[in-house]
Amino acid sequence: MTTATPSLGERVLDTTRQGFDHDSLTALLNGDVHAVRLAGFVRPDALAHLRKAFVGRQDHGPLGTDPQFRRIGHAFSETNTEAGRKRYFEEAHHNIERLRAIAAPYSYPADDLRLLLDEIWPSGASLLRRDGQAFFAGVARYQLAGVDLEPHTDNIGRNLPEDFAIRIRRQLSVNVYLDVPDRGGELEIWDDYPDEREYRDRSGDRVYGIDRASVGNPAVVITPRVGDAIFIDPRRVHAVAPSQDRPRITIGLFIGVSDPAESLKVWS
């Protein structure tokens, strides 16, 4: 069953993995909703195991672009040199296998997302590839207490050199929530679509994102629930409020749409 969330107006489409379909993703792509939430995406028995496997781990490493953020897996957004991209592709398969091993004997939620997207999109879904090299997909993020994921947008084009022949016309993102703080950690989304030049101008000399003081109040604030998956359009300015108690742990993918008739491409 798919419904809007009354407390969030018509801005969040609430459904389940069984109810998620092409129309749900199209509603997000068309800007009809700010988010699509799949309640209970991770089944209860798997969720209990995954929380035991992922919550409390200390072997996550610092994000290359901002060490206050922690992750398992290597995000493409960390790469800004040819050497960095070479390392990213060399480690991509190892990183996927490492995360699958942590999740075993249950499936890794990023794999479940890829399968679900393949089933609901007319042309299917697959890993993003460049010259036969597969991207990594399914980074596990640990947003530690007190860390502010400030207002920002996501755009793979920022990390692609001009000779990278990858055609992504639209980019969506999805996170599966393995743990959320009791206080803080809300997903915030604004009615604000800066183009890339405007975003760079508004970021100025900042290491990351846009000053919170300059964006006003968000249009939508979603309190994630453990086990849910939430899809958003990361072209909208979005943020995550700082946790007030414990790390917020998610597994995330980007989803690329090159053409409605072509398959979706996923990566992290």
Descriptive report:
This protein has about 270 residues and is of the alpha+beta class. Helix content is about 25%, strand content about 25%. The strands form three sheets. Strands 1, 2, 3, 4, 5, 6, 9, 11, 14, 16 and 17 form an eleven-stranded mixed beta sheet that branches. A four-stranded antiparallel beta sheet has the order 10-15-12-13, with no helix packed on it. Strands 7-8 form a two-stranded antiparallel ribbon. It is globular, with a radius of gyration of 17 Å. The model has no long low-confidence stretch (mean pLDDT about 90).
Keywords:
alpha+beta, eleven-stranded mixed β-sheet, four-stranded antiparallel β-sheet, 5 helices, globular
SSE blueprint:
Layout: E1 3-4, E2 12-15, H1 22-29, E3 35-38, H2 44-54, E4 61-63, E5 66-72, H3 82-103, H4 109-120, E6 125-127, E7 129-130, E8 133-134, E9 139-143, E10 149-152, E11 170-179, E12 187-189, H5 196-203, E13 220-222, E14 229-232, E15 238-240, E16 248-257, E17 264-267
Short description:
InterPro entries: Oxoglu/Fe-dep_dioxygenase_dom, WelO5-like. The chain is an alpha+beta fold.
Question: SSE string, helix = H, strand = E?
Answer: EEHEHEEHHEEEEEEEHEEEEE
Largest sheet: 11 strands, mixed
* Shape summary: globular
Report, as a whole number of angstroms, the end-to-end distance.
29 Å
Protein name: 2OG-Fe(II) oxygenase
Family: Belongs to the iron/ascorbate-dependent oxidoreductase family.
Pfam families: WelO5
InterPro entries: Oxoglu/Fe-dep_dioxygenase_dom (IPR005123), WelO5-like (IPR055091)
